Amino acid sequence: MHAAEKKVRAFVRVKPTAHFAQDVIKFGPDNKSIDIYIKKDAKKGVVNNKQTDWSFKLDGVLHNTSQELTYETVAKKLVSEALTGYNGTIMCYGQTGAGKTYTMTGATAEYKHRGIIPRAVQQVFKAIACSVDSFITVRISYLEIYNETLCDLLSTMTSSGASDVQMAVVDCPQGVYVKGLSIHSVSGEEDALNLLFEGETNRVIAEHSLNKNSSRSHCIFTIYIESRVRVLSDIRCINSKINLIDLAGSERLSKTGSEGRVLKEAAYINRSLSFLEQIIIALADPKREHIPFRQSKLTHVLKDSLGGKCNTVLVANICGEALHVEETLSSLRFATRMKWITTEPVVNVTYDSEGTVKTLEKEISLLKQELAMHDSLVNRSLVTYGPLTDVQVAEIKSQIHEYLQGNIDEIDITNFRQVQEVFRQFKLIVRQQEGEVETRLRSKYVLIDKNDFATIAAAQKLGIVDVDHHLLKRQDVETKPTPVSPNPDEKKKKFGTSSEQFKKEGTKNFFSGKDLAAHLPSKSQVIIPNKNLDVKEKARNEDTAKNDAQPSKPVSEEISQRPSSPPSRAVAFEQFKEECGSEINRIFKENKSILLARRKRSSTVARRINIIKQEMEDIKKALEAQRQERSQQGEYVDEKGRLIIDEKEFLLIMKLKDLKEEYRCSYAELQDLKAEIQYCQHLVDRCRNKLISEFEIWYSESFLIPTHVQNALKPSGNIRPGMIPINRVMCLEEDEQERFERMQEAMLPAGPDSAAFYKAKMKTDQKHTYNRTMSSLKLMHKKPGHITAAGKHRALPFLHVT
Ligand SMILES: Nc1ncnc2c1ncn2[C@@H]1O[C@H](COP(=O)(O)OP(=O)(O)OP(=O)(O)O)[C@@H](O)[C@H]1O
User: Fold this and answer.
1) Contact predicate 52/142, CB 8 Å
2) pLDDT in tens, 555-580
3) Three-class DSSP labels, 330-379
4) Torsion of CA 577, 581, 583, 589, to 10 degrees
């Protein structure tokens, strides 16, 4: 079997019953086989060759299985594969009342008993909610095939509400589609369920002797998924659809006791199911070339959903009572045949070139805006980013010439295009010079093939050339100044290297400019001496080794590696000061040490002032003593009457004067220091506060804020600065409406997950109660026997007067 080939999977689901025929239906221990035993009919005599027991092997037997487990077994994988681009079909087949609708749609009144369709819808939208890198749209259609007529169960949901559009099954290269069938975009689970319930309400219900509510039509609920993923600059579109099919009952006509309209319905159903069976048999036969899909509307619509490129699952619903054993056998046969069909599912991918162009245009315009913003931030104005004009190119050319001649030290660069142009111009100059060198060399030398030993020997014999000679000549050429590398050291190294190369070769006697150029290191290369190169290379290798040993972790990985319980604040603070807070901690420490130094200085100055003060006091006392002694001894005055003092007193007075001056200066210094200390203290306080607040943020981000909130707060996340204050994000304050909705969801029997289901159900019920009321009012005003447009072939439930 081909690697991608698969078989259609078939399951049997047994409807629970109190009268389960244990002797007739037996399940194998592997839960995959089912045996049917029918007692021989004694009335048919001794010769009775009718087969009495059958064994069927399927992919699973669902007996007494919950809706949830049924979904997990039958549909979950198919739906998740549909989300990656594979078409999927799930079909319920079986006799009337065997539980097809229960399996497919489920009991719409209770969330727990919901069937495959609502569960598939939920799975799709849950997956969408989790996908971050793709843009997914979901659309829904609900088709009914009733008596070979196609009906749109959602036509009441279109703006016109009209259902008179002529519908037809159309084949096209992309597959089959139903022309005129409305397809509705849905934004969420509730929206999609609204459509399901609306369609369910519109289904044709006919009176039937086996089951009063049995549906007499085939219904196909389709979920179309389109996801657009950006792969580099391409937009990849993945399209898939999930067909969820509830077939009409497959029982025999004779058994139903139907008559009139219901008999006609049963005939149509039997015919389309028998065509379906023929298609299944044909598909299972690899030799069959033509598959008659067009025989019935059902088989035509299912053309690309049966086998082929699609994942297909069949659920055969059977009744457990002995009474229905014939139908059970027929359903099991059908299921076994389905299992023979081989499928080869493929992903439906297309590339949206228009979308790609649009995305690129959008990105260019965004980048232009960003550039403009950057320019305005660094006060650069009048920078253009379009292609360079001829004048601009000429300007660059002239600047390069000026630069090469040493007239200017720099070339003005304002954008990337200019950088490219500068390199282009340099390349042109290099090429031009290479050409000139080659021409010069060719005019001087003759090129001889290095393997042409005869010519070389002859030339050497003639003394025209030898190895040393050509080296000499080369040196002539090499020592000519070249404008490319203005650095003379570099030039020397460059030529040194090439000369060594030539010496080593020693076989080539004459060189063309081209040969020379091939041996010279490329002029565009930066020449690094071998020694330097070794050191740098070694350092780089060490770096690489270091990096290899400690691979840099992505942020998300770091977050995911956070400890289960946060470290103590004291421990974390020490870590913070070492890492993220090291800079602010450094500034804080610096400020603190300045403050400490000022304080020290201030106390030194204060101490000095005190000493001065003390000295001044002492001198004052000594002076007083001197004065007293003088007055006791009698005072002397000069001719002008000025008091004469002795030298000791004079010296004391002078010392006091000096001390006063020193005191004044020290006092002023102390005042300055006090002001400085105050300012430094303020800075230290601010640094401390900043250190603490930064630490608090770091601590919360590293150990407390949940990862998903952090992701949302990242620049690319859902929450951008200015949208919601951080405290609002953290405590997620609810408004009244949110609180009400949360309470409402908490009260739901199956928790918040069931909210969409119940809301959709409520909306549909409300709508139809309203419609019924309005119809009742209208009917009351109609004459008896008046036929409504909607009553053409179906008895819509909301037209019943209740
Ligand atoms: N597995 C089940 N568990 C509980 N109830 C079930 C189960 N299967 C079917 N039923 C009940 O049996 C009744 C008939 O089932 P349902 O309408 O699904 O049959 P059906 O095969 O769709 O019939 P029809 O061919 O007429 O559409 C419903 O009341 C349904 O709730």
Assistant:
1) no
2) 444 444 566 777 888 888 888 888 88
3) HHHHHHHHHHHCEECCCECEEECHHHHHHHHHHHHHHHHHHHHHHHHHCC
4) -50
Which helix (H) or strand (E) covers residue 119, if one does? helix 116-130
User: 100 a known binding residue?
Assistant: yes
Task: Tell me how far the alpha carbon of residue 70 lies from the centroid of ligand 1, in angstroms.
Answer: 14
Residue from 101, 105, 245 whose mutation best tests the ligand 1 pocket (most atoms within 8 A of CB): 101
Closest CA to 316 of 677, 13, 108: 13
Phi/psi of residue 469, each to 5°?
-60, -50
Cα 516 to Cα 502: distance, rounded to the nearest angstrom: 9
Which H or E run includes 439? helix 416-444
What is the pTM for the complete model shown?
A: 0.53
Please, are residues 315 and 103 in contact by the beta-carbon 8 Å criterion?
yes
Output the six-digit token pair for 404. 């090469």
Q: Tokens in use for 180?
A: 């005129």
Distance of CA 7 to the CA centre of its chain: 34
Report residue 738 as tokens: 């949110």
Q: How far apart are CA 357 and CA 355, in angstroms?
A: 5
Maximum separation of any 2 CA atoms in the chain, in Å = 178
Q: What are phi and psi of 436, to 5 degrees?
A: -65, -45
Q: Which helix (H) or strand (E) holds 647?
A: helix 647-699
Nearest atom in ligand 1 to the alpha carbon of residue 70 is 1
pLDDT digits (tens, 9 = 90+) for 739-766: 556 666 666 666 677 888 888 888 777 7
3-state secondary structure 208-237: CCCCCCCECCEEEEEEEEEEEEEECCEEEE
Å from CA of 74 to ligand 1 middle: 17
540 Cβ neighbours under 8 A, 6+ residues apart: none
* C-alpha to C-alpha distances, 700 to 76, 556, 585, nearest whole angstrom: 39, 16, 19
Specify the residue for token string 């009914």.
144
Q: How far is the CA of 210 from the centre of ligand 1 (A)?
A: 12
Radius of gyration over every alpha carbon of the chain, rounded to an integer in angstroms: 48
Cβ proximity of 103 and 92 under 8 Å = yes
What are the tokens at 277? 């069976």
Report the DSSP beta bridge partners of residue 308: 343
Ligand 1 center to residue 214 CA distance, Å? Answer: 8
376-415 pLDDT, tens digit each:
777 776 677 778 888 888 989 999 999 999 988 888 887 8
Where helices occur in 508-564 by DSSP H, the ranges are 513-519, 530-549, 555-560
Question: For residue range 153-172, what is the model confidence (pLDDT) as tens digits?
Answer: 898 766 555 556 689 999 88
Residue nearest (by alpha carbon) to ligand 1 atom 1: 15
CA distances from 350 to 79, 116, 175, 310 (A): 20, 29, 14, 17
**In the chain, domain spans:** 6-38+50-351, 353-383, 577-713, 738-799
Q: Torsion-angle region of residue 246: left (phi > 0), alpha (psi -120 to 50) or beta?
A: beta
Residue type, 150: L
400 within 8 A of 411, measured Cβ to Cβ: yes
Tokens of 147: 């008596």
CATH of domain 6-38+50-351: 3.40.850.10
> How far, in Å, CA of 153 to CA of 389, rounded?
63
What is the C-alpha to C-alpha distance for residues 183 and 474, in angstroms, rounded to an integer? 81
Confidence of residue 35 (pLDDT cuts 50, 70, 90): very high
